[in-house]
Amino acid sequence: MRRPRPLRTLLSCMTVTALSAGLAALAGGDALAAQQTTSGFARPMPAHVAAPYFEAWTGESPAELAAESGNKYLTLAFLQTEAPGSCTAYWNGDTTQPVSKATFGSDIRTLQARGGNAVPSFGGYSADTTGTELADSCTSVDAIAKVYESLVTTYGVTRIDLDIEADSINNAAGVDRRNKAIAQVQRWAERTGRDVQFSYTLPTTTTGLAPSGVALLRNAVDNGARVDVVNIMTFDYWDGATHDMAADTETAATGLYGQLAALYPKKTPAKLWGMVGVTEMPGIDDYGPEETFTTQDAVKVRDWAVARGIDTLSFWALQRDNGGCVGTAGANSCSGVAQDTWYFSHTFAPFTSGGGKA
Questions:
Q1: What DSSP line would sit under 113-128, residue for residue?
Q2: How far apart are CA 169 and CA 189, in angstroms?
Q3: How far is CA 62 from CA 66, 95, 103, 104, 105, in A?
Q4: Which partner from 36, 87, 225, 310 sits 20 to 30 angstroms from 334, CA to CA?
């Protein structure tokens, strides 16, 4: 799938009764997310979580926008190297923003104190097309793993997201290194009593992953790397068609479900659906009006996600969750459709539930 986008946009980038019953079941025990495990480390991610992407290069505070929008969890995008060949990851590839408590540390602690957390995300379209995605840039599996581990020890996060698309998804050497590093981190986490999940954010068609996405997951299986969530980008199909974005989310996710069933034949249907995530782009996406995710679509997708029991609902990006530029496609800071500010956040946020994954 092509996902052309202005560089700045992805600088280092992405019945009432029945509903009430479903959301109540998912939300029960939400306060548990703020507690710690007996090992003293942060609790695992909830079994169902709304975690919109936050554009980390804007200079805004993720904790402040989370409070304003009603989100407990945010996916912080993106981490990448400064230049190809490097094994050091920085926020936005900016050497003044290293992985340290001085960069987003206070914001992440605030999210955690409110019962949520951050999900650091590597890659994105810009990194994936410039050789600065970590596993494309760095040829040492050990060094890649150490970077992932540093996110856990520095920030107390329990999930790491890998946005792999464009050139990166076809870079076989990078795919293999990344999956070997994931497996290495998971062994480290087991030894040290930590919970660390990995999600892959991947491009999709309206019927599921392209062969490159399936091959990436097959390589993970072959390397013994556990993939906790496969988060498909249900936008920017770039196929020239006019889309019903909610309906296409369902068909894309159903196709993914079938692909996961083939990769993980021992998993139950519930566990397979529990590996699925979807990321929308509210309003008019980069392709144009033919791909418009409406406020009505948001309700439909949330209801479907509750019914299916998927893991993650997300959208690109939090800063776009307002109606300040009606008619504009793919804008950085607004959705392009008429909406109340934080409408998509308020619609998706109740999806979050407490406790760890089953």
A1: HTT-EEEEEEE-HHHH
A2: 26
A3: 6, 20, 11, 8, 11
A4: 310
**Residue 237 DSSP symbol:** -
Q: At a CB cut-off of 8 Å and minimum separation 6, what does 53 contact?
A: 13, 14, 74, 75, 76, 77, 121, 279, 314, 315, 316, 317, 318
Residue 134 lies inside a defined structural domain of this protein: yes
Query: DSSP strand E in the chain: where?
Result: 49-50, 53-55, 73-81, 89-91, 117-123, 159-163, 197-203, 229-233, 276-280, 283-284, 292-293, 312-315
* Structure tokens given for 191: 């030894």
Structure token pair of residue 81: 């190297």
4 pLDDT higher than 70: no
pLDDT of residue 40: 54
The three-class DSSP label of residue 227 is coil
Q: Which residue in this structure is represented by tokens 């200079």?
A: 59
- Whole-number pLDDT of residue 42: 75
d(CA 144, CA 198): 14
The answer to the question of residue 336 being in a domain is yes
Closest CA to 83 of 31, 38, 136, 43: 136
Separation between Cα atoms, residue 108 and residue 102, nearest integer Å: 11
Residue 293 within any structural domain of the chain: yes
CATH code where residue 154 lies: 3.20.20.80
Whether omega for the bond prior to residue 78 falls within 30 degrees of 0, making it cis, is: yes
Query: 232, 222 in Cβ contact below 8 A?
Result: no
Domain count, the chain: 1
**What is the residue range of 138's domain?**
16-351
Q: Is residue 150 part of a domain?
A: yes
Exposure on the CB side of residue 286, measured as CA atoms within 13 A: 24
Q: Report pLDDT digits (tens) over 276-290.
A: 999 999 999 999 999
**pLDDT in the model for residue 26:** 47
